[in-house]
Amino acid sequence: MSLRTSLGRLLGRSSSPAPGAPPTSGSRAETVTYLQDFVRTRVGVEAYVEPPNVQTPSTVLLVATTGEWTRRRVPDERTGFEVARSLGVPVYNVRFTGYPQRMRDWTSAQRRRD
Question: Where does this protein have compositionally biased stretches of type Low complexity (predicted)?
Answer without folding.
Answer: 1-29
